[in-house]
Design a protein that fits this description.
Blueprint (H helix, E strand, L loop, with lengths): L9 E6 L5 H9 L17 E7 L3 E7 L7 H13 L6 E7 L5 H12 L4 E6 L8 H11 L3 E3 L8 H11 L20 E5 L13 H12 L3 E5 L1 H10 L6 E4 L4 H7 L6 E3 H9 L2 H7 L11 E5 L11 H14 L4 E5 L14 E4 L7 H13 L4 E3 H8 L3 H5 L9
Parallel strand pairs: 1-3, 1-4, 4-5, 5-6, 7-8, 7-9, 9-10, 11-12, 11-13, 13-14
Antiparallel strand pairs: 2-3
Helix pairs in contact: 11-13
């Protein structure tokens, strides 16, 4: 389940069937956004609801299937619900009737694995209040905030809202700017932006827009041109640019036309530093030289898009890698945050896109299985720079900059 292009804070709601998850969404929204039924299992797949919460602002609530769902189909629903853990910033775990058991404990273990803050809610207090002894035991064992309420009768919504405000991580709202620590006031940044088959009609791609905005936020000056005009413009440009940022697919051409004393990097590497697993990318990128005949490589895209003949992840990177290594390599591409087609151990390497439409938490969680398995990971821009022999130059702007 992809977070897609919606970067509002995401709140996942989990619990057994008929624990009142949909009622809670409606109580927080003050209107009926989710279908409520006394029949267990009404919510089958994760459902996203956009709403506003006082003191937080716009959020996306994700209503999930019951964690106690049964049968083969039920287990698939549970698995889909657990997939949302890769996308959320805060979790609400509901239980009712003083029933708190293995299912809840397993889910809490997952919250901790993915470092997701969570709030425990004993719902339907109008039918059966929370047992004090049980509540004290749960609070002690989990260390999480616990509230007793009735979502049906909208009881204590202010207390729950206050907990949401208190426990929503700051990273859900903001991310460090792409240019933070790289430029100072009045620095000039030249952006080399190809207009090709992958460029959207009448506009720039998101990473290019994000770099322009971050340059302005840091009181710099952003200049934009195509690669066909870059060389003649750099010769005439006074003062010279402090930094040149290029699209990865014209990295080699940019390296040839930008004088060596002018720092050069790519949009994708800027994104890798801001929201990717930068430390593990740096560690994993050199493994490209160790790829063997028949190795399988996983390409991770953060979004879904129409594939063109010049697609960077599905066409160009595989072609460049095969040519660079001189080996027959196999590639599989997964878009969004959907499940992998095979066990992670079957891949020799993972290459993640820049991730312009998802968060750092989502990318880190997406790569976590590979990192834990000791499988090298890298990023589009860093891999392309390595293949074209300009990796050291492309990484030089970050050597003196503090990590984000």
């Amino acid at each position: 389940m992809s977070r897609g292009k919606d970067n509002k804070p995401h709140i996942g709601i989990f619990g057994r069937r008929n624990s009142g998850k949909s009622s809670l969404i409606n109580a927080l929204a003050g209107q009926e956004l989710a279908i409520v039924s006394a029949t267990p299992g009404t919510t089958t797949d994760p459902v996203r609801k956009s709403m506003e919460i006082t003191g937080i602002g716009p959020v996306i609530m994700i209503d999930t299937a019951g964690i106690d769902d049964e049968g083969e189909l039920g287990q698939k629903r549970v698995a889909r619900s657990r997939e949302t853990l890769k996308t959320i910033d805060l979790a609400l775990l509901l239980f009712s009737g003083n029933v708190f058991g293995v299912e809840e404990e397993m889910l809490i273990n997952d919250f901790r694995k993915y470092e997701i803050p969570f709030i425990l809610i004993h719902n339907k207090s109008d039918l059966q209040p929370l047992d004090e002894t049980l509540g004290a035991s749960i609070a002690k064992s989990t260390g999480a905030p616990l509230i007793d309420l009735s979502a049906r009768f909208n009881a204590q919504p202010q207390k729950l809202t206050a907990l949401l405000q208190q426990h929503m991580p700051e990273t859900a709202y903001t991310a460090p700017g792409l240019m933070e620590g790289l430029i100072v006031k009045d620095d000039v940044v030249l952006l080399i932006t190809p207009i090709d088959n992958e460029a959207p009609q009448g506009r720039l791609i998101l990473p290019q827009v994000q770099v322009i905005r971050s340059t302005l936020d840091n009181n710099g000056i952003a200049l934009v041109c195509k690669e066909s005009e870059a060389e003649s413009y750099i010769r005439r440009m006074k003062p010279e640019p402090t930094l040149v940022v290029t699209d990865s697919q014209v990295f080699a051409k940019a390296d040839a036309i930008v004088p060596g004393h002018i720092p050069l990097t790519s949009f994708s590497i800027l994104l890798a530093r801001q929201r990717g697993d930068f430390k593990n990318y740096v560690k994993g990128t050199p493994y490209i030289d160790q790829l063997k005949e028949g190795d399988r490589i996983l390409i991770l895209e953060s979004c879904t898009h129409q594939v063109s003949c010049d697609d960077i992840g599905r066409v160009k990177i595989p072609a460049w890698l095969r040519k660079y290594t001189g080996r027959k390599l196999h590639f599989e591409t997964v878009a969004g945050l959907t499940s992998l087609p095979r066990d992670i151990h079957e891949y020799a390497m993972v290459i993640q896109c820049g991730g312009c439409v998802i968060t750092r938490r989502q990318i880190i969680n997406r790569l976590k299985p590979a990192v834990e398995a000791g499988i090298p990971v890298t990023n589009y821009g860093m891999a392309i720079a390595w293949i074209h022999g300009i990796y050291q130059r492309a990484m030089a702007p970050f050597n003196a900059a503090a990590p984000l």
